[in-house]
Design a protein that fits this description.
- The chain is mostly loops.
- Helices cover 0% and strands 0% of the residues.
- The protein contains no helices and no strands.
């Protein structure tokens, strides 16, 4: 599901960047 989000997506609830949810 995260693959479909844009790179600049941020969590609307916690305001964390998408990168925070993916192992980099």
């Amino acid at each position: 599901p995260f693959d479909q989000l844009p790179d600049d997506w941020t969590c609307p609830v916690c305001n964390a960047p998408k990168e925070a949810f993916e192992p980099v």
